């Protein structure tokens, strides 16, 4: 279960970083709850889709499953680190509508779908794992809006770099152990 919590924290860093940007850019009443609900729901759903896809092809690629999970987690981690170094999309947001939140929620959770494949290799109930990922992302997203409101965006890139590093380390763990 510890692995699931670590995975949840790492996957939530993307949503946390975007939430910080949203909070710093424009903070309306209820934005923290709205960000938490949108990001949490999609971060819970996408790994489950990845898990189902991984289960569907696991029989065919069983011998290479550890290498594939390692590769996906390293690629996702590297992408998050790269995005942490680059400027985020939050600077281009002028109005925080439900449509914009939906687009941001999908964009930040695509990585979680790929990471969901690694759930096939963890000794964890996929329903519980996806619920934990959603709840952790909800909490980090709500906190991110509040942090952004109070501190600006200085923490935004650090969160993505941290999340990417954790995903890479999880990929190495899956490959080695």
The global form is globular
User: What is the count of β-strands?
Assistant: 0
Helix fraction bin: over 70%
- Main sheet: strands, sense, barrel: none
Oligomer classification: single chain
Give me the strand/helix succession. HHHHHH
Beta-strand percent range: under 5%
Distance between the termini: 16 Å
Q: How many separate domains?
A: 1
Content-based structural category: mainly alpha
Ranges with pLDDT <50 over ≥5 residues?
A: none
- Cα-based radius of gyration, to the nearest Å: 16 Å
Number of helices: 6
Q: Mean pLDDT, rounded to whole units?
A: 84
Task: Give the SSE layout.
Layout: H1 2-25, H2 31-61, H3 65-85, H4 98-116, H5 126-151, H6 156-176
Q: Mind explaining what this structure looks like?
A:
By secondary structure, the chain is an all-alpha fold. The chain has one domain. Helix content is 80%, strand content 0%. The protein is built from six helices and no strands. Helix 1 packs parallel to helix 5. The chain is globular, with a radius of gyration of 16 Å. The relative contact order is 0.29.
